[in-house]
Amino acid sequence: MKKYGLIGFPLEHSFSKRYFTEKFEKESIKDCRYDTYPIEKIDLLKDLVNNDRELMGLNVTIPFKKNVIPLLDEVDSEAGIIGAVNTIKIFRISTDEYSLKGYNTDIYGFETPLLKVLRKHHKNALILGTGGASKAVAFILKKHSIAFHYVSRKPKEQTIFSYEDLNEEIIHKYQIIINTSPAGMYPDIHNCPDIPYQALNSDYILYDLIYNPEKTLFLQKGEEKSVTIINGLPMLYTQAEKAWEIWNR
Is 184 left (phi over 0), alpha (psi -120 to 50) or beta? Predict the structure, then answer.
């Protein structure tokens, strides 16, 4: 049996196990299993890998995408540039030896849905949140020459907006708003990023990396203003398939 799984904390929101379980059933993949591993500290990664020698690959989610990197033996070049890892391939060298290589498949998952709705006037973006997923978003925005600013509850740099900074004048300059924070994720479904939604119109794109619920309050408020909305499900599916490709090549 080859095992794969997801590490992070908490993991109640995750659809990854269901996605891969259904994939294995549909494609008649009988020698593989996918589980969730809710670990509160990233230091427990090595224990997890040591204790289950059938484990061949892991996905990584909140809050470990950045601080998992020092525990890896190697990091793919793109993941190194981004500074965040969401996929780990476990190379089993012998019974007791292995090496860990980190990759970032979020960039593939994020880019594909965005390109389908991107228009010429979409030249500036706000990235809500500064965690690991935000770095993959920034990587793709740079690739497509889209200028951006981060927004954080506790900005540490002058180049990062606080939510208190956001007013209608600022919002009018940024036609793409991407939520990479957990605000609004199940079970906290009545929460949403604090932005001036009244300033939005049909020229905007709201992209929420959250996929549970499928339509967050952030997206609902955008939809009320005729905004183009994208949730995190297409990103989940695309990055998951890329992870599967990495684990099996």
Answer: left
Residue 158 has phi, psi (to 5 degrees) of -70, -20
243 occurs within a structural domain: no
Q: What pTM value is reported for the model?
A: 0.88
The residues annotated with a catalytic role in the active site are 65
Same domain, 226 and 111: yes
Do 29 and 23 form a contact (C-beta atoms < 8 A)? yes
Helix (H) or strand (E) holding 152, with range, is strand 147-152
In this structure, the answer to whether residues 38 and 125 fall within a common structural domain is no
Each residue's pLDDT tens digit, 145-191: 999 999 998 887 777 999 999 999 999 999 999 999 999 999 999 99
**211: phi > 0 → left, psi -120 to 50 → alpha, else beta; which?**
alpha
* CB 87 within 8 Å of CB 105: yes
